[in-house]
Structures
1.
Amino acid sequence: MKAGESRTAAVLGVLAAAPAVLATLAVLAFAARELSGSTPFSLGPVRNVAEAAGSGQVSQVLRFLRDGEDPSRFWPVRAEIISSTVTRPTGLEAALWGGRSLVELLDRRGFIRDAGTRHHLACLARDIGNEEVAAYLSGDVTLTCEAGAAFATLTDRSRPR
């Protein structure tokens, strides 16, 4: 093979491989941005205990609790986490969307501190259609709630002022 033919074959080989290499690099760049939360399609990491609870991320809830965040406090929650009408719940309220095991975890750790909070959470669970959590929170007590009132309190708090 002559030197000119060898050089042409090398250039053609590089040109043939270039699309596959560029496509692989583009996929890797997109994956890195997706993991960092910087694309329009990603929510990014949860920012507080309420976002973690609302999305059912138990390990993240535990991390925020360990870092001292109070699940009884009102927290800003992005509209994509729970609902566009629920953007300022407590971590305890957000946990109702995270499931019974999360609510039980918070209860066992002593974060549902009084009967009033337990009643509010049970009524909110009923309002959002989570009867399993409502039954857990009410226990043996007959639950008396004004239909929709607990959810209305939450959505009113979430309205921009």
2.
Amino acid sequence: MIPDLVLFIILALVAVASALGMLFSRNAIYSALNLIINFGVVAVFYLLLGAPFIALAQVTVYAGAIMVLFLFVIMLLGVERLRTASSLPWQQPAALALMIILLLEAAYVIIIRPATLTNLQPLPPGFGSPSAVGLRLFDQYTLPFEITSVLLLVAMVGAIVLSKRRRKA
């Protein structure tokens, strides 16, 4: 248990440091790269929790596809420096209030009610494995899966139609 705890603490420090680096970086590309590091650390957290499929999906979808899209937009628009003058006056007090609420909730769950964290039931063997997720997805959730795929296809075709430039004949 001690090696897992040490690994968790190290990864938690890396996750917090990369999140803070993402928030406070003035360069948009460095901010996106810190977000990629954070996504990778979250994937390792999923591996520590025994969920390899979710870890792979985290790396593939977020650290792969979404971040490539973010970096492409950053490079395309040429926004190397983040603008600070365009912030609204109410944003900083609202962010501080939400941070205080989040810290109070976390303190309540961790310090005042830790008994709920210890009464968790063990997961059945094979829970969260790719085969179990695939069986559940294509057995019980076939219709929502197909509806989602049709919606994504329609959105893709709509994006192509909207972005297509009209040619003069």
